[in-house]
## 1
Amino acid sequence: MSDPTALRGGIDETVGDEATFGVVTVSDRASAGVYEDLSGPAILNFFREAVKSSWRAVYRVIPDEKSEIESTLKTLCDKEGCCFIVTTGGTGPAPRDVTPEATEAVCSRMMPGYGELMRNISLRHVPTAVLSRQTAGMRGKSLILNLPGKPKAIRETIDEVFVSIPACIDLLEGPYIVTNEAVVKAFRPPGLIRQEKPAPAA
């Protein structure tokens, strides 16, 4: 993206820690410049609206090549230190839709509940959501989540799914993420909740 400030957001005046997010658009045509990527920016815009604590993002646009998806995910996890990586695109039944396979290849453990939840959400909007093969998994202390490819479907999905993401990242010993509750009210068991900093005296 041309504006580097778009890759940062949130504020420091919360109980949260700075988080690093990965955003990966998987698309032959977008990576070749045939059309502008709108899906990655939709995810970044969600972070700007929903995450109150400080964050930065690493954004990539790559083709539907399994080896390149795998190497990108490994770099974001192992070198960039992303606690949460979101992919968009490549989750359907078409021959070049290989994002789920690449995700599974780099993860040590899978989180099938996220795929089930995302399909249930999307099925409320379109019957072809049953064709989606979205999945999620963990690599080290990183959570990787496959989202749909269209901006509208991205927001329909991530606005609901993100409710549990901060707690999952807590359990992976990652940064403490504070959300803007007007957009997403994160759910945490009581033992994972930090107390807000007291307001300074007038």
## 2
Amino acid sequence: MIIQVWSDYVCPFCYIGKKQLEQALETSGYAEQIEVQYKSFLLDPSTPVDTEESIYGPLAAKYNMSIEQTKAMTQNVAERAKEVGLHYDFDRMKTANTIKAHRLAKWAEEQGKGAEMNERLLQAHFLEGLAIGRMDVLITLAEEVGLNGEAAKEMLTSDEYKEEMYSDIEIARQLGVRGVPFFVIDNKYGISGAQPQHLFEETVAKAAEEAGLQRKLNMVGEQGALCEDGVCDIE
């Protein structure tokens, strides 16, 4: 079974939603039989590249708020993030053009490091305040998940993976996706946004049962005496 997730690396609810999905998979008993595919989405491709600007100014302008009102708004989001074990640091966060980040994630996926790269990019932006629009930062993050830095730099200085990134965005448009995170579960169910946890758990379980997946056993008690490989515990 496949779950597709459209998200952007500067979307605070995308990281929250990711953790909710991971928790739902863990509790479902089907996690090992479900593949999660992360798809690209650009909230604001016009954001300047290599900027080190705080997120407060652009957010205040976007929502026509004062800086103080903007900080209060982000504090509410930070409290929501704590519910899934994330400790956002909005004071350190920087605006970022995420086109290169998405391309890097696409490349990392082909190297077998897609999940690790996706998580590292979100962590870098929301928890560490790193400027994930900058090439030098992206190269360092790639190296941290075990990828070759020179190869990452060569890819980022080209136009590789732009087509794949924009293909994801076009599919989202066709699905009617207007915002992220957006989850498509087994091509049957859609979840828009970071919804209540029980909705993720119920939908994952329902889709898995309909797909005929075998639920992982919930083991009870400690391991007792047994025989295996022709040897029995007799002490």
